[in-house]
Amino acid sequence: MKRLIIAEKPSVAQAIAAVLNIREKKPGYLEGADVLVSWCAGHLVELAAPEGYDARYARWRQEDLPIVPGPWKYEVIEKSARQFETLKRLMRCADVSEVVNACDAGREGELIFRLVYDLAGCDKPVLRLWISSMEEDAIREGLRQMKPAAHYDALGQAALCRAQADWLVGINATRHFSLLYGRTLNVGRVMTPTLAMLVEREADIAAFQPSAYYHVRLDCGSFPAESERTEDRAEAERIAALCGGKEARVVSVETRERREQPPRLYDLTALQRDANRLLGYTAQQTLDYAQSLYEKQLLTYPRTDSRYLPQGMTEKARELAAYAAAALPFAAGLSLPCHPRQLAGKVSDHHALLPTAALRDHPLDALPAGERSVLTLVAARLLCAAGEACVMLETTARLECEGVSFTARGKRTVHPGWKALDAAFRATLKSREREEEADGLPSLNERMTFLPVTASVREGKTTPPERYSEDTLLSAMENAGNEKPSKDAERRGLGTPATRAAIIEKLLKSGLAERRAFRRRICLVPTDKGISLITVLPEAIQSPALTAAWEQKLREVEQGALDGEAFLTDITDMVRELASSEHPVRDVHMLFADNRRAVGVCPRCGASVVENAKGFVCTARGCGFALWKKDRFFAAMRKELTASVAAALLKEGRVSLKGLVSPGTGRTYEADVVLEDTGTPFVKYRLEFAEGRKRK
């Protein structure tokens, strides 16, 4: 009897096969004496489209909403049909006694496997291979410690609930609001509240009114001191005039030690944020590079939400830190004490991101630039996180001049600790961001005097909140828009580390947001279309806090603390309420101005028909009426469906055309083209000839 191992990607399947010394390649799988290894190549099965439940759902109609499947249906993705059939055949082989789920160790991997397993109609026992690294030793250890699939049932239920919730909200809300406003409005359970944060930030910037403030600066020779801030310019000028040329006296000096602890290891979101801020990579680029490094066995599992290591890995981390130190050129010559025990903490599914032992034998220079930069970030972060605290002395001195109080501050690094490596790394960057240099004060003591001092008025202005960069938007998604996130904010944020990059990219591809440069900084801003969408949507759909609450419930499903059906019932109730109670926003035509030229009125629904690149289409979502420019009827007669022809067909239902060419003889003739609406996306035409007019 044989065991069938199913990985998520071909590269992972090949790595597992290599460990098991399986080399015989077959179409869609590898075969050994008692083990078969195949793969899913990503998603093979997806939730069925609405029309898969009932043909009438192919048209968007308000009376059909909400669409709530029961039971849920699934269908094979067309481009993946061949690999699905391969897996189905292998699962049903009489000599296959058990199946191993070796898809990525997380929610998404669990879902990918279970949908294939169920749709293939397989009922054979399943084991779960759970690994956080593609190293050979990690794979061998994972194979030794496989558990029955039932151990991960709660994880599988959470993954399925997430997919079904996204379907319910996306399908119903998109159709409902599109029909309500007569245009396509893409709504997503996580995408929309993310967009709402962009819109809110843009509104805050637009509403911001800058205000001036002033302070007086004393130049005491070797250091400056500043007065309290005031919004009264005249008062600041009075103080400057009073103190200029006078004596300033030190009345108190306080020095305290401040220890800046090493940063935590990276999870995916933290890595994406730093890669965006320091390297300019998008979240999706960073995820792609990290995934490639994982498949090359140079990085542990990238889609992690943990920034700690389990207790049993701390000594392994010491070994990896040594490899990292040897691999990073800027680490040469630095003293790098390693304290791996401080890396330990609570770990759920996967530990924090780490380079693997393969770094020892794989030069960084051999990697493509993007992968090299990301791996450098991870390796440097390991050394910093295992390093010593940075110790600084912060001095605050208070001075008086003519009865006015001034403050001077300075800091001095006593022990750089982890910041020595961080500074060396940042020095290699072309970018913008560098650590501020410590600026100390001279030795001061009480009753010291400075005479004469120079006094000047310094003006400043309050600044608006900054637009979101990809770095800061990821942080906002992680914390569900809260300025002061809780300790477990990661569990209650928008999306997951694995999905946030895709959410951002979907916003961009759908035209709801765009990347734009402001002051040499790439920011994410909503488009007019995105702003209009958020304007008309209710709070229940666009609220980051409410969406984060759903994420927390999904986490409870994953932990077995909440039944998945209860979660979906709540989602369904919300969808039903949306479909029955929402009314259009007044003056919506001002929000969704359509600059496309109207050529006529739709014969089906009465809405405007506008021209686009492919034809003349009805603007009412769900109508489906269109006159396509590349229609075979006109092409056969060597005629174009122009705007004037379309306008005549829409107004009169017919148009008289000259110079029509007979396909058989090549001769030209004149006839009336009559429009026949079929009620489908493809209308029909026929020719009519006037009395005495013959077709040639």
Structural summary, described in words:
With 696 residues, the chain is of the alpha+beta class. It has 5 domains: 2-145, Rossmann fold, CATH 3.40.50.140; 165-206 and 467-581, Topoisomerase I, domain 2; 212-261 and 390-461, Topoisomerase I, domain 3, CATH 2.70.20.10; 268-385, Topoisomerase I, domain 4, CATH 1.10.290.10; 598-688, no CATH class. The protein has 21 helices and 25 strands. The protein has a 7-stranded mixed β-sheet with strand order 2-3-4-1-7-8-9. A 4-stranded antiparallel β-sheet has the order 14-13-12-15, with no helix packed on it. The protein has a 4-stranded antiparallel β-sheet with strand order 19-20-21-22. The chain is globular. It starts with a strand and ends in an 8-residue tail after the last strand.
Tell me the fraction of residues in β-strands, as a range: 15-25%
Distance, first to last CA: 74 Å
CATH architecture of the largest domain: Orthogonal Bundle
> Overall 3D geometry?
globular
CA radius of gyration is 33 Å
Question: What is the CATH topology of the largest domain?
Answer: Topoisomerase I, domain 2
- How many individual β-strands? 25
Could you describe the largest sheet, including whether it forms a barrel? Answer: 7 strands, mixed
Total helices: the number is 21
